[in-house]
Amino acid sequence: MRQHYDAPHRDDANYVALSPLSFLKRAELVYSGRAAVTYGDIRRTWAQTGARCRSVAAGLAALGVGPGDTVSVLSPNIPELFELHYAVPLLGAVLNTVNTRLEPETVAYILAHSDSTLVIADTALAPLLREAFRLNGNTLPVVDIVDAQAQASAGFGERSYDDLAAHPPMVWELPKDEWQALALNYTSGTSGRPKGVIYHHRGAYLMAMGTIAAWALPQHPTYLSVVPMFHCNGWTHPWSMAIVGANMVFSRDASPGKLLEAMAAHRVTHMGAAPIVLQMLCDSRDASAQPFNPQIRVMTAGAPPPPAVLEKAAQMGLDVMQVYGLTETYGHISQCLWQDEWEALSVSARAEKQAMQGVAFPMVEDIRVVDRDTGTDVPRDGLTQGEIAIRGNTVMKGYYKDATSTAAAFESGWFWSGDAAVVHPDGYIQIRDRLKDVIISGGENISSVEVESVLYRHPAISVAAVVARPHPKWGESPCAFVELREGASATEAEIIAFCRANIAHFKAPKTVVFGPLPKTATGKIQKFILRTAARDLGPQA
């Protein structure tokens, strides 16, 4: 006889909404006496951190913050921003961490578009916030973060973060609905107006758990907070670290020298960092001649890392795992999972393998590379390009107040990334480009990422990006923008010759432009600015 397995038996005993808040609730008890926060002279345990988060939540509630309210934050990676990842959602409110390096016009746009009801701002960023208010023609209530390590400007003086933390702690309360909005993150601004990406509690919970599994995080790691928490909520690491009782080390100054100092002084075991940060660490004069021992495990994402950078990082004692994701997917959703047989490869060959974006994280349902014309998966030949499509619980709810863009992103029941990739015979995915960054020259597709990887092997080049420049014969040609290393020199002819010696001639840049490259705060090169600059050069002569 058929059993009635579909009978309704869901109640409070067997169904609890998933939320990353539960991680800190547990850590406050299980890791009560263990180090949670290290920042300058500040040392706090998980019990103290949990209590502070509940106190800050109570202080916010006293200001009238409640379910569905957007709380915007302008702050570098310091303990207060970490605490707000728990305090704001504890009230059912939505955390909006704002990129601190944006120009006032974009900050003003975000504050207005997000319907922010309160801003919590480090006083060093008060001038930026004042200008954003001026541009919007209105102000919002402000809570000042007064950091003794900052050369701070005068804040707004309405109330301080310490005032919030002085309230009696409220009790832990999980959301009733795990689909409830948790955070609002704006896309990083590599192209046009940023979109507001809505995260829910379920997705953040699963991403944090998936990170533990994918990174094989041990109990009580020492984690250096480098990934800006305004970017995908620090790749959800602030929530992951509560699961394993990590010691979170913060450095307000994210310069290579300060990061290297913290890595050595606190015996850091884990960190996340964009490839540009890895390169800065490897090239820093403060880098020790001796590699870190034991190795520091590093998760890198944000742009495909050049193999040359990965090779240098390995020599420095950094065990780097390449991951891939987008703001719309809570950060990383694929990983270049290490294979034992790679141990037998040369250092450069291992770096080539590590530059792949790899396979899906444990909590991701599926990742495909699709030929958009046919709707079929591309062959596993490492050559045929398609678009990465993603399906899973760690895909955003949608774009805030933008139903049209949401519908386009979710066409046919998949999230379409806009990234062009190939699939290798072993099933590993490798990004070739953003679709809009593919250069079509004489009918041939040229991957800007492939050309950039060659440029990074040039000893004089520190940073490189390649975009299309109009060409009267070929339609488009590769145009390279490069920053040279301090004290290094190179000519356009030398760089073009180097590329032609290491890549097919039609793929080599026909133009090289020297100078600083525009970047987002997370180290991504803003190619939309470079595309405009290349067009402004006019057609290739």
Automatic annotation (TrEMBL):
<dbReference type="InterPro" id="IPR020845">
    <property type="entry name" value="AMP-binding_CS"/>
</dbReference>
<keyword id="KW-0276">Fatty acid metabolism</keyword>
<dbReference type="InterPro" id="IPR045851">
    <property type="entry name" value="AMP-bd_C_sf"/>
</dbReference>
<keyword id="KW-0436">Ligase</keyword>
<dbReference type="Pfam" id="PF13193">
    <property type="entry name" value="AMP-binding_C"/>
</dbReference>
<protein>
    <submittedName>
        <fullName>Acyl-CoA synthetase</fullName>
    </submittedName>
</protein>
<dbReference type="InterPro" id="IPR042099">
    <property type="entry name" value="ANL_N_sf"/>
</dbReference>
<dbReference type="Pfam" id="PF00501">
    <property type="entry name" value="AMP-binding"/>
</dbReference>
<comment type="similarity">
    <text>Belongs to the ATP-dependent AMP-binding enzyme family.</text>
</comment>
<feature type="domain" description="AMP-dependent synthetase/ligase">
    <location>
        <begin position="31"/>
        <end position="400"/>
    </location>
</feature>
<feature type="domain" description="AMP-binding enzyme C-terminal">
    <location>
        <begin position="450"/>
        <end position="524"/>
    </location>
</feature>
<dbReference type="InterPro" id="IPR025110">
    <property type="entry name" value="AMP-bd_C"/>
</dbReference>
<dbReference type="InterPro" id="IPR000873">
    <property type="entry name" value="AMP-dep_synth/lig_dom"/>
</dbReference>
<keyword id="KW-0443">Lipid metabolism</keyword>
